[in-house]
């Protein structure tokens, strides 16, 4: 199902978009001039409750930042995570353009911004801190997932 073309007034202005970026772990340390350069490449998306944003196994090259609503990340029917306003998801496919490792589903009405791989790479070339932040956040998420895993019994 394709995303709706409705616009969310909560994040419609350039200033609101920059504030949303600054509030994410990914861009919290990013200079204002770089955030201002990122703002125009953000594509506004709207999703209906229960709408699949992307499916496990699909090829992806985009990162999403939640503006309003909540997004559930699932492996089949098993919930893995829930993302709220200011959170981002889809960063693995953004970095490696491989098949998605999980599905993302709108848990209610969701407004989000999509940043595509080619545009994101341009930003990382301009500001190395963004690339370091991606690695830092990926490590944090991997550690949290590892802590949730049951111990291996030999």
UniProtKB/TrEMBL annotation:
It is found in: Membrane. It is a multi-pass membrane protein. One of its GO terms (molecular function) is intracellularly cyclic nucleotide-activated monoatomic cation channel activity. One of its GO terms (cellular component) is membrane. It comes from the Bacteria. Its main location: membrane. Keywords: Ion channel, Ion transport, Ligand-gated ion channel, Membrane, Transmembrane, Transmembrane helix, Transport. Residues 26-141 form the Cyclic nucleotide-binding domain. This is Cyclic nucleotide-binding domain-containing protein. It comes from Hymenobacter nivis.
């Amino acid at each position: 199902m394709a995303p709706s073309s409705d616009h969310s007034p909560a994040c419609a202005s350039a200033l609101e978009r920059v504030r949303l970026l600054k509030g994410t772990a990914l861009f919290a340390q990013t200079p204002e001039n770089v955030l201002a350069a990122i703002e125009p490449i953000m594509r506004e998306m709207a999703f209906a409750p229960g709408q699949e944003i992307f499916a496990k196994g699909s090829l992806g090259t985009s990162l999403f930042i939640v503006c309003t609503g909540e997004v559930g990340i699932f492996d089949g029917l098993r919930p893995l995570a829930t993302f709220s306003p200011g959170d981002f998801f889809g960063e693995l496919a953004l970095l490696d353009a491989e098949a998605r490792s999980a599905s993302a589903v709108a848990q209610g009405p969701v407004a989000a911004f999509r940043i595509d791989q080619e545009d994101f790479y341009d930003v990382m070339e301009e500001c190395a801190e963004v690339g370091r932040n991606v690695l830092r956040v990926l490590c944090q998420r991997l550690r949290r997932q590892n802590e949730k895993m049951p111990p291996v019994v030999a």
